[in-house]
Each structure stands twice: as structure tokens, then as C-alpha cells.
Design a protein that fits this description.
The chain has about 625 residues and is an alpha+beta fold. Among the domains are: about 1-65 and about 215-240, Nucleotidyltransferase, domain 5; about 70-205, no CATH class; about 310-395, no CATH class; about 460-550, Dna Ligase, domain 1 (2-Layer Sandwich). It is built from 16 helices and 33 strands. It has an eight-stranded mixed sheet, with helices on both faces. Strands 3-2-1-4-10-11 form a six-stranded mixed sheet, sandwiched between helices. The longest helix is centred in the N-terminal third of the chain and has 24 residues, at about 185-210. The two termini are about 45 Å apart.
Length: about 625
């Protein structure tokens, strides 16, 4: 038995792959105050499990809520303010008085050490004054220390010396050459500071799960050991959404779709991605405004989920999110919250019924939803139904913009892709958003409410290795060193080479598969595909060499047990009016069945508006086609 666990902001999802091939899923309410307790509760319910792959939001939440460790940054003397200076980019282009940038490490916790390594790796001066530095860190009461010295990616000797000088103090220590051994000082410092900031939180969390064989899912779409996650916590910051990308890609490919837009709407946020053949990795990710220089799946997140709070601002406009009711207190309909959320709007419109949620395992208080929506309606001067529909329209607009970011703004026509809807709320919004974008096909996969957890079972173990190569010519020597390290860490792994390249004079790179002399040609093609042009006369620079080591997961049959056919008729507000429509489980869906209808699963609901038809696939995915667009 293998188990995938996705600890979300509102629910923690469990997917069990039994030895006979059956898939089973259940959800538990997340506990932001004691997240490990929910994991242990679920594992006790399951019983014996040989492998557990776990995607965690512990590090992400600590960062977003600024509840990480008291962290110090040790840099080369004279470069203490690299985090504050950054790239001097203006995030608010037309704002003459933008809010001040708040680094994770405040000025009084940034310390310089006298040392110097040149750009070619030659050590000009070994670190000195480490005793004084140790005393300063003690007096500052720090819990964690990030060490990021100039050019440590070329030669880490000075960083190692500083780490050794601080090792016996009980601090969580993080060296940049271990976390992100790559060119670019600000991004490397930011990544190291992030790792140190959330590392102690994750370390304590994993300590509570000791005694279990648990793998931790990474932002790159693979998993790693718990020991690795303790040292490189920054690689887990997007682990939940990354599982969704893997799951969406896998179920879509089984249904015959290789070009997809992933649409994962959970309780607190919506994560979108574009997959054109294979999921895309990037090293230019930013989380809450902080650069992260490690390979992550290219995901865009917006604060719009089932728990997103609705309010009326000072100008009288309806707003939805990014604030969320989360797991505690949750939407009003859960029985503890009082403020209106997107989920409450669906309850008011009849799309989520009292006995429907989690197979009837979680009661829904429709009266509390009505009261919460009424409070918003009173401020707007509208009735309850109009307020609920307005909340959903605003939420749809937020999520539609997110899909445009990963498609239209990057040169892709969304009409050429299928929209894969998952997460607890994704199916309730997918067809309406697809119609706005001209998308003709929506996929409602099996286990849609727990697809991220399923993706974690479908993924393999992955470790990434990198080395800066700017100005180098001995590429084979660098690759050989990275591959030796990969073989020591992961015996029997498949090794894949790639490189970050750019035209001479450019500031940013594109990653392409390494093919020796043919690599430059692959870069020209990639540049033309991404930017619309290529200049084959310009010299090409190799900036970073990368090796990915991977071990595939055991094969898994993606097909949930649909049970016996169930069908009922319910009064639902759909397409702007109240209608009596069928509410079906997947076993009751016939090929070509028209909307409007609701597809009710254990952890998710899909709204099929009028003009859409349903086509069940052998893998359990339901293909929804817009009959108005052919």
C-alpha cells in the first residue's frame, strides 16, 4: 500500500493505492496550529503503508505568514545589504510612493565577514574574525543562520570554514553552495535566506512525523527523503501545487490530451500551469516577491479559492480574496465561520447541498451561508442571489486573469489547450472560465478533489544538481563531477543533462537539453519559440550546467471506483436562472449527455452548464465539450 498526502490550507487529502490497484481517497480538515497531527490521524486511519509521499504547506505558510525562524545572514564584508538592494526593479511601475521592501532578514541581523574569493574561484583571503561573529550572533538571539559569500558557487572553501566556525552553537546552518550553487548574488542570497528562514520550522514538523517512512514532495515535481527536506526546505515551497501539475499532466495524457492548462482551485488559492507536451521547469520563480533560484515547476498562483472572503471595499466595489477563511474558521457553511466565501455563494445557489459534501461525511449549514451572503448583499444594495452570483463572477475574473498570465502573456493561444479542472472547487468554475477564454474542452479527472495527492504517487524521486559555467570551457569535466555526486546520492538513477544558455549580453537564460555541439541550435529554436525570434549570428554563452537524477515511481493505474450509478434532481441556479437539473455520479454519465448538470464526486463537484456535453473516458476522466464551439 502506498499513500499520497497533500496538506492544503483547508483540507488535507489522502489517496491510497492498494496492492490490488484500487485507488481510495478521503479528506480531513487541516489544522494550521498542528499540521502534523492531521497527517498522523490520517495514517492511523489507513493503517500500514509501505510508502508515504507527502506534500507540505508548512514552509509555505511560515513564509507567507512571516512566522519563520529568527534568521541571520552572513555575507562577505561590504555586501550585507544585498537582500535590501535586490535588483532595484520597480514592482509598482506607476506608484511614486511604493511600500518599502521588507527583506526576510532585517538590517540588524545581517553580518559581514572579512574574506574574499575571486570570480574564478581563487581564494584571496580566508575568513577571519569568526569568534567575534559568533558572539554577535549569540547576542542577537538568532535561531538560524544563512551563509552566502561572494563567488562561493565557484569555490565553497570559505563558506565551509564559516559554517565550521559556527557549527557547535545549535543554530540551523545553511550554506549557499549547498542550496543554490549558481551565479547571481541576489538570487543566491535570497534562496539561502529563505531556506534558513523556514528550515527550523520544517525540521520540527518532520521531527513529529519520525518513525514513519515518509518522502517529501518537491517543487520540481519529484520527491526526496525527509533528511534532504530538512536541509533543503526551500525546495518544498510549492510542493502541493507541483503535485497537481504532475497529476493533471498524467490523467490528461491517459485521456489523449498533451496540451493542457492545469486549473487547481482549492480552499485558499488557485494554481494554474501550462503544459505543452511536458511540464516546464524554471529557476526564475518568485514566492511572495522573493526570488527562489532552484528548479521548480512553472506555476502561477492567485488568492482565489473556495474559502476566499468576499467583502465590499471603501469605494463600494465587490472584492473576493486574497484573504481566506482557511481551515479555521473556514467558510460559514462549515459551521464555524461567519464571513461570506466563494463556497457559501455556491451553497446559496444550490450547487453544494447539505448531504453532498465529502459523501455526506461533513455537514453543510446552508442557513449560515445565507446569513453571510445577506450581509454582503445588504452593503451592495442587492438581493442574496445577485450577491452570490456577483461573488462568483469576481472570483472567475481573478482566475481568468491567472490563466491569461501563463498562456496569452507567454505567446500561447488558450483555445488550443484543454482545461484540466481539479481541486475541490475547480470543476464548479471551469466551464464558465473556459467559455470566456474560448476553450472548447474541459477535463474533469477522477479523484479531482485530491489530484495533487494522486500526482505525488505518480511522480518519482528526483534530485537536481547544478554548477555555474560562465566563462568555462571544460563542460564535460563539470558534468562528470555533478554526475559522480548524483550516483553517490541516488544509485541506479537515470541522469539527464541540461544547460542554461543565453545570447552574449543578455541578462536571463533559457534551459535546454544538453546535446554537445548541437546545444546551441536547440537554444536558438527555444529562443524563437519563447520570444518570437532567434539570432544565429550572435555568440551563445553557457551560464549553468544541470544534472537531474530520477528514479521512476512504481506504475499506478489511474482509475477510481465509481460505484453504482446515482442520480437525483435538484433545484440549482445555473446560466442565470433557477432550474431543476440532474446531479450525477460518474457511473451515471452516458456519452453525449447534455448539460446543465452537476457531477458530484466525494471531494469535488463539477458544474456542466447548458451547451456543454459529457463524454466519459475509459480512464475515469469525463471530457466536457462546448457544443457551441466546434
Amino acid at each position: 500500500m502506498r499513500v499520497g498526502i497533500d496538506a492544503g490550507g483547508t483540507f488535507t487529502d489522502f489517496v491510497i493505492a492498494h496492492a490490488d490497484g484500487r485507488l481510495e481517497s478521503f479528506k480531513l480538515r487541516s489544522n494550521p496550529h498542528a499540521p502534523a497531527s492531521v497527517i498522523l490521524q490520517g495514517l492511523r486511519r489507513i493503517g500500514h503503508a509501505e510508502d508515504v509521499v507527502h506534500g507540505s504547506t508548512v514552509a509555505t505558510n511560515a513564509l507567507l505568514e512571516r512566522k519563520g525562524a529568527r534568521t541571520a545572514l552572513v555575507s562577505t564584508a561590504g555586501f550585507e545589504d544585498v537582500l535590501a538592494i535586490g535588483r532595484q526593479a520597480r514592482p509598482h511601475l506607476y506608484n511614486l510612493t511604493p511600500p518599502p521592501r521588507r527583506p526576510l532578514v532585517p538590517e540588524d541581523l545581517r553580518f559581514g565577514v572579512a574574506e574574499r574569493t575571486w570570480f574564478d574561484g581563487a581564494v584571496a583571503r580566508a575568513p577571519s574574525g569568526l569568534g567575534t561573529l559568533r558572539n554577535k550572533l549569540r547576542r542577537a538571539g538568532v535561531e538560524s543562520v544563512a551563509v552566502c559569500l561572494l563567488h562561493a558557487y565557484q569555490n565553497p572553501d570559505n563558506e565551509r570554514a564559516v559554517i565550521e566556525g559556527l557549527r557547535d552553537e545549535g543554530w540551523y546552518l545553511c550554506a549557499s553552495h549547498e542550496v543554490s550553487p549558481e551565479y547571481r548574488e541576489f538570487e543566491r542570497s535570497s534562496t539561502s535566506a529563505l531556506n534558513a528562514y523556514v528550515g527550523p520550522i520544517m525540521d520540527r514538523y518532520l521531527g513529529e512525523l519520525e518513525g514513519r517512512r515518509i518522502w517529501i514532495f518537491q517543487s520540481n515535481g519529484g520527491f526526496m527523503t525527509a533528511a534532504e527536506a530538512r536541509r533543503q526546505t526551500v525546495r518544498t515551497l510549492l510542493s502541493g501545487p507541483a503535485g497537481g501539475v504532475v497529476g493533471a499532466h498524467a490523467v490528461a495524457a491517459l485521456a489523449g490530451f498533451r496540451r493542457i492548462l492545469g486549473f487547481d482551485m482549492g480552499g485558499t488559492s488557485t494554481d494554474v500551469c501550462l503544459v505543452d507536451g511536458e511540464p516546464v521547469l524554471t529557476t526564475e520563480a518568485s514566492i511572495d516577491g522573493f526570488p527562489v533560484r532552484v528548479p521548480v515547476l512553472d506555476i502561477h498562483t492567485v488568492g482565489a479559492g473556495g474559502g476566499s472572503l468576499a467583502r465590499v471595499d471603501e469605494g463600494g466595489l465587490l472584492r473576493v480574496g486574497p484573504e481566506s477563511a482557511g481551515a479555521d474558521p473556514g467558510p460559514a457553511c462549515y459551521g464555524t465561520g461567519t464571513q461570506a466565501t466563494v463556497t457559501d455563494a455556491h451553497v446559496v445557489l444550490g450547487r453544494i447541498a447539505a448531504g453532498q459534501f465529502l459523501g455526506g461525511g461533513m455537514p453543510i449549514d446552508s442557513k449560515r451561508s445565507e446569513d453571510a451572503i445577506d450581509a454582503v448583499a445588504a452593503v451592495l444594495g442587492r438581493d442574496r442571489v445577485a450577491a452570490a452570483e456577483g461573488i462568483l463572477r469576481v472570483a472567475n475574473a481573478n482566475m481568468e486573469r491567472a490563466i491569461r498570465v501563463v498562456s496569452i502573456e507567454r505567446g500561447h493561444d488558450p483555445r488550443e489547450f484543454a482545461l484540466v479542472a481539479f481541486g475541490g472547487c475547480g470543476g464548479l468554475h471551469a466551464c464558465e472560465i473556459a467559455r470566456e477564454l474560448g476553450i472548447r474542452t474541459v477535463l474533469a479527472p477522477p479523484l479531482a478533489g485530491a489530484l495533487s495527492a494522486l500526482g505525488m504517487l505518480l511522480a518519482g524521486r528526483i534530485r537536481d544538481y547544478s554548477a555555474s559555467a560562465l566563462g568555462e570551457k571544460r563542460f564535460e569535466k563539470i558534468f562528470a563531477r555533478l554526475e559522480r555526486q548524483a550516483k553517490r546520492d541516488m544509485r541506479g538513477a537515470t541522469l539527464t543533462r541540461s544547460a542554461d544558455l543565453r545570447y552574449q549580453g543578455q541578462s536571463y537564460e533559457l534551459n535546454v537539453p544538453w546535446g554537445g555541439d548541437a546545444t546551441a541550435g536547440a537554444f536558438h529554436e527555444a529562443h524563437e519559440r519563447v520570444y518570437g525570434y532567434a539570432n544565429r549570428e550572435l555568440p551563445v554563452e553557457v551560464v549553468v550546467l544541470r544534472v537531474a537524477a530520477s528514479v521512476a515511481a512504481p506504475p499506478l493505474t489511474v482509475r477510481a471506483d465509481e460505484g453504482t450509478a446515482r442520480r437525483e434532481i435538484r433545484r440549482v441556479r445555473v446560466d442565470g436562472r433557477w432550474r431543476r437539473i440532474p446531479v450525477l455520479n460518474r457511473a451515471a454519465i452516458a456519452d453525449g449527455m447534455p448539460g446543465p448538470a452537476l457531477i458530484a464526486d466525494y471531494g469535488a463537484t463539477t458544474l456542466v452548464p447548458a451547451g456543454w456535453t459529457m463524454h466519459p473516458h475509459a480512464t475515469g476522466t469525463v471530457i466536457l465539450a462546448d457544443a457551441r464551439r466546434r
